[in-house]
Write a structure and sequence with these properties.
Blueprint: E1 5-10, H1 14-25, E2 30-34, E3 51-53, H2 58-62, H3 69-80, H4 88-102, H5 105-111, E4 140-142, H6 146-163, E5 167-171, E6 173-182, E7 184-193, E8 208-221, H7 230-236, E9 249-250, H8 259-266, E10 271-272, E11 277-285, E12 295-299, E13 305-308, H9 324-332, E14 339-344, H10 345-351, E15 353-354, H11 361-364, H12 368-372, H13 381-389, E16 393-396, H14 399-410, H15 417-431, H16 439-447, H17 451-456, E17 472-484, E18 487-488, E19 495-497, E20 503-509, H18 531-549
Parallel strand pairs: 1-2, 1-8, 2-5, 8-20, 9-17
Antiparallel strand pairs: 3-4, 6-7, 7-8, 10-18, 11-12, 11-17, 12-15, 13-14, 14-17, 16-17, 19-20
Domain FAD-dependent oxidoreductase 2 FAD-binding: 6-532
Organism: Streptomyces aidingensis
Protein name: FAD-dependent oxidoreductase 2 FAD-binding domain-containing protein
Length: 551
């Protein structure tokens, strides 16, 4: 029986595009399949902020940030917490990825035209010891053009391959089976869905209008994770994070459902670390949603007062931007699934950024004038739109009115004004003193010692109840689903392994479907900026390995 292609790639997101580009440029004939319409080419990377983890970059050095491969690996190990037999390959992938981030990653992307915003962000600051969770230094590099800007060279490479006849893109092809005909997995079968004019991110038709069966020497699975499937998220929710939240927002569209992981597992693939996942605690309802339960993540600076649903301050070091999963674990132990930021106009103007390409039109559109406009007074336009129209924002001139609005928003009288006032006044008392025992204030002052934070990210410390800094603002924060950290177990060539640790002949995996490499190179936590980079690295690796195997 003849082959339809040398390699079939399942999933047209960033990892699938990276793999396809490598395969086609190595002279292989590639079929790229995706269940969504062509408008969704690029997958979730399109919606991203475009953040990338780089080590000892020129951007860091210009800002007097000293970084090294050794420091990055120390931070990775302290964050990942590898502690399982299944972490054999994830740990090896992690080390290879840190080497990539400290080595050729930036030059490779730069050679394709990718550029970076000059101010490096400091995500996941940790707040523990030097060997604990978090980034010791700023490493979050924002792609100039955000997610679409990062996708562009890979889309360009794949489109060129399609024009030359080396690649063929088949949309509306939903894979439901993998099978063997000559020892290795060489047959991909599934359903053809009805044509759809759905715009990117919106629900497309699931009407089945046909079936397909395709054969190739190798298959690359790059189908993404489970973040849009709340039932599966709850099924995989680990006991260590407490009871799954009753209500979650979705950081990804519903078609990110994990179905292909089940197909691969049924065919014999090893699926590991499925209880490891990455969900944000600073989600807000999108006032202009694209998909159902569409949530946007606030990328906060360190100054907002973070309180739980009852108004109690979160414990040290659970400050904004310090420890995502540590905060999630604490919240799930409170009996409520929402928390609050309490802040001022002065803080929101300088410290609030919103994750996503569509929430940063200046960076996405590569507008220098627009970016310079961020230095002017006033909240950025997208943030102002959420203040005016978002369901989670309360803006008032005094604390009593703010608390009344917070309780009205939830429909429960959970927050007591006197208790919250005592907490805020105690915090404010420390602001006017050069000495403090409040570690959040210490962290704020420490952040401003970094030039990037002082310039555009961290407000001057001030009293929350200072009328000159007002009005007061409260933001209800929801749990926002996002990433699968576990996945298909792969070796360092991206070959999918079976339960006995042997390669599954002919099958490779990349991106979120492979836990970004090995079945979970992040371990339990992420340092951020590593998801897009993990898709690129694992997609490139799998593509090159599959090309060599099908020569």
């Amino acid at each position: 029986m003849a082959y339809d292609a040398d390699v079939i790639v399942i999933g047209a997101g960033l990892a699938g595009l990276a793999a396809t580009a490598e395969l086609a440029e190595a002279g292989r004939k590639v079929l790229l399949l995706d269940q969504e319409p062509e408008t969704s080419l690029g997958g979730q990377a399109h919606w991203s902020f475009g953040g990338l983890f780089l080590v000892d970059s020129p951007e860091q050095r210009r800002l007097r940030v000293r970084d090294s491969r050794e420091l990055a690996w120390q931070d990775w190990l302290g964050t990942a917490g590898f502690d399982r037999a299944e972490d054999r390959w994830p740990r090896r992938w992690a080390e290879a990825y840190v080497d990539f981030a400290a080595g050729e990653k930036r030059a490779w992307l730069h050679g394709m035209g990718v550029r970076f915003f000059p101010v490096v962000g400091w995500a996941e600051r940790g707040g523990y010891t030097a060997t604990g969770h978090g980034n010791s230094v700023p490493r979050f590099h924002i792609t100039w053009g955000t997610g679409p800007g990062l996708l562009e060279p890979f889309v360009r490479r794949v489109r060129a391959a399609a024009r030359d006849g080396r690649a063929e893109l088949r949309f509306r092809h939903r894979v439901t089976g993998l099978s063997r005909s000559a020892g290795s997995v060489d047959t991909v079968s599934g359903e053809i869905l009805a044509p759809s004019a759905a715009v990117r991110g919106t629900a497309s038709s699931r009407e089945v209008v046909g079936a397909f069966e395709l054969r190739a020497q190798a298959v690359v699975i790059a189908s993404g994770g489970i973040g849009g499937n709340h039932a599966l998220v709850r099924d995989c929710w680990p006991q260590r994070l407490g009871t799954p939240p009753r209500r979650m927002l979705s950081g990804v569209p519903a078609h990110v459902d994990g179905a292909m992981l089940g197909v691969a597992e049924q065919a014999g693939a090893s699926l590991v670390n499925r209880d490891r996942m990455w969900h944000y605690t600073e989600g807000i309802e999108n006032w202009d949603p694209v998909w159902e339960d569409h949530g946007i993540r606030i990328l906060p600076g360190p100054s907002s007062l973070w309180v739980d649903a009852t108004g109690a301050r979160l414990p040290v070091p659970l400050f904004p931007g310090f420890d995502t999963l540590g905060t999630l674990q604490h919240i799930m132990g409170t009996g409520h699934s929402h928390t609050w930021f309490v802040l001022t106009r002065k803080i929101i103007e300088k410290e609030f950024a919103l994750s996503g390409s569509e929430q940063n039109p200046d960076l996405t559109g590569k507008s220098i004038r627009g970016v310079l406009g961020r230095a002017r007074s006033g909240a950025p336009g997208p943030v102002r739109a959420f203040m005016d129209q978002g369901a989670d924002f309360v803006v008032e001139q005094d604390l009593a009115s703010l608390v009344a609005g917070m309780n009205a928003l939830t429909g429960e009288d959970l927050i007591k004004e006197d208790a919250l006032r005592r907490e805020i006044e105690a915090r404010d008392r420390e602001i006017g003193n050069p000495f403090t025992k409040d570690l959040q204030i210490t962290a704020m002052r420490g952040a401003r010692s970094y030039l990037g934070d002082k310039l555009i990210r961290v407000a001057s410390p001030h009293r929350l109840l200072d009328p000159k800094a007002g009005p007061l603002i409260a933001v209800r924060l929801n749990i926002l689903t996002r990433k699968t950290l576990g996945g298909l177990e792969t070796d360092l060539s991206g070959r999918v392994l079976t339960a006995d640790g042997e390669p599954m002949p002919g099958v490779y995996a990349a991106g979120e479907a492979a836990g970004f490499g090995g079945g979970g190179m992040h371990g339990y936590r992420s340092l951020e900026g590593t998801f897009l980079g993990g898709c690129l690295f694992s997609g490139r690796t799998a593509g090159r390995a599959a090309a060599a195997a099908t020569a």
